[in-house]
Every structure is written in structure tokens, then in C-alpha cells.
Write a structure and sequence with these properties.
Rossmann fold, binds alpha-L-sorbopyranose, NAD(P)-bd_dom_sf, Gfo/Idh/MocA_oxidoreduct, 11 helices, 2 domains, 9-stranded mixed β-sheet, Gfo/Idh/MocA-like_OxRdtase_N, 6-stranded parallel β-sheet, about 375 residues, single chain, Dihydrodipicolinate Reductase, domain 2, alpha/beta
Length: about 375
Amino acid sequence: MSQTIKAAIVGTGFIGPAHLEALRRIPNVMVTGLVEVNQELAEEKARLLGIPNAYTFEDMLKVSEIDVVHICTPNFLHYAQAKAVLEAGKHVICEKPLAVKIDEAEELVSLAKSKGLVNAVHFNLRYYPVVRQMKTMRESGELGEVYAVMGSYLQDWLFLQTDYNWRLEPDKSGDSRAIADIGSHLLDITEYVTGLKITEVMADFSTVHKTRLKPLKAIETYSGKMLSMDDYEEVPINTEDHATVMLRFDNGSKGSITVSQVNAGRKNRLNIEIAGSKSNFEFNSERPNELWIGKRESANQHLMKDPALFTPEAAGLISFPGGHNEGFPDTSKQMFKEVYAAVRTGKQPDSPSFPTFADGLRELIIGERIIESNKKQAWVKI
Ligand code: SOE
């Protein structure tokens, strides 16, 4: 492989440009290709984003100099596109969810394994340095035995009945919305930090807006604030705006999460509190440079992100000295640094430090069991 690794990005909604920006901050990685639904749109977006080549998906697969493909399209396309990329012999970084059905994700996991190609799912929120700090402090015994986990992930970008996006349509997004879209990040972080496995779930969903006003022209995620009433049609909604899920873990401890896309003022707030026998950790993604450590027999601590104070593993995800805040865009950069180090070796590592297709499959399984639990209003085993 040449010294500069060449990549293509498929899709230019909210997250494709975020991948592009992160890749531009990594040495010796170059995004040389952009894919959109047709050549004309690909050319327009490539010009706007400053990417040298525009392709249709099929043409991009034939370009031998492209080593890595980032799939940033709506969920229903992930399976077929990830499969085609692997079959073309290219490494792949797929947005979450890995697929919309478990059997599709299983097929992708085994295909990626048989090809030996690097495969990753963009669970980027793991890459807040504080999240890895919590993980490594738990591993070294500073949390103690996990007693309980309490999490929430709250947003307000779907608060109004006029807020609309492809994620509201199950044929594009899948059968779950809030759980699949943001609950998946929270559940991934829960297992990642605690090292525990969720064994059973009990879920209760609510759809606050039973109908929504759909814009008559397409709009992109987070950008639905500039239309007038004549631009809408009323459509039924059958995925959850809000969900609460009780959790049981394999060490016998318990937890709960609440996710919502209709909480006014909560822009994009993941919060996790892990109660342990030695201390209590709390992380809030809207204040991502701080870790609260609760103590019973001494003063509580407030640990600010600082490579000099963090564990070596967490310090490895920090690019600036203490007091120089890093945030959401940095999570993807830090994740891609690890993924591209694997790409440089040409194959998936035996124990990857980054979230893989297997992690994507795991979140799909948990998500399906949560949907089943809500339908049955009963505990369901994972
Ligand atoms: C939209 O709800 C969304 O973009 C998610 O899809 C992302 O994964 C999360 O990072 C922010 O919100």
C-alpha cells in the first residue's frame, strides 16, 4: 500500500462531512472520492466539499487506488453497500447501525472475517477521552464492583411535530428509532466501560407525535427549521420518540436507560452514571472534558481532561494539553486514527481497540430484543 491511504465517502448528509473533516486531520490519509445517489449530485457535493473525484457507488468500487470506504448513507443501505465494499476487497468503516436486520449483520461479520479486511462501526462516542478514562479506571479497580448503571441520551431535534427526517421512516431507518439511533451509542458505552454484558431487557416506548408534518421536499438531519406550513403533508409515525429500558447484567447488577428525541433544550446529551463499590463515575457528553468521581468517605473529585492526569490509554485519545477543550468532531478523528493504523497493516487486528462489525451486530441484537420487550411488555433475554 502506498504511504498515503486513499479513502472514499459514500453519503453527504449530517455525518458524511463529519467523517471527511476527521480524516483531513489525520496525516497521510486522503479522501479522494465522493459517492452520492447520482453522478450529478456527487459532482456538486464533491465541488462543495473539495474532494477531487465524484463517483456513483458502482464506479467507486472499481477504483483500485481507493483502499477504504466510509459508508455514511441512510441505514437501509448499509448492509448492501458494506457487503459490496468487502467483496471489492476494500476496508470499510460503516455508520451505525451496521444493518437493519440481525441476519444481514451476521452475514457482514462473517464476510469481513473471511476476507480479513479492516471493519469498523462508527460508535464514535466511545472516543471521548473521558469514556476511555472510565474504562481504564474500572479495569484497574478504581470503580470497584459495579452496583448499577443509570444512563440517558436526550435530544430535541425531533421535538416539534414539524421536525422531520428519513430516520422517522422505518423502511429507511429500521423498526426502532430513538433506541437504534442514540440508545445504541449509550448501550455500547455501557458494556464498553463496565465490561459487563446485558443479559435481559424490559422496555417501554412512547410515540409522542402520532403523526408528523412531512416536508414535501427532502431535508437533511438537523436542518428542518426553515420551512413554512404549506410545505408539509401529515403522515403517521410508528417508531418511538422516547423509551425507557430496564437492564440486567451478567454480574447480577441492574440498570436503566432513558432515551428521547423530544426533550426541549437537550441538544445531544448522553449521560451515564456508574455506581461502583469504591466510587461512582458520571460522564455527560455536553461537558465532555470532565469526569465526576463520587466518593463516600472522602471528597468527591472533578477530573478535567488532561493528558498529564489521565491513564496512558485515555491520554492516547487527547491531542491538546489540559484546558484546551476537545469535543464531538475529535471523537471521530481519534477513532479513525486507530482504524487507519490497522488499515496500514492491511488486515483486521486480532483484538481491535476500535468498535468492529461484531460490535455493530451486538447492538442490533440488543436493539431487536428491546423492540420485542416493548411489544410483549415483558422481560426478554438477550
Ligand atoms: C441523529 O440523532 C444523530 O446524528 C445520531 O445518528 C448520531 O449517531 C449522534 O451522534 C447524534 O445524533
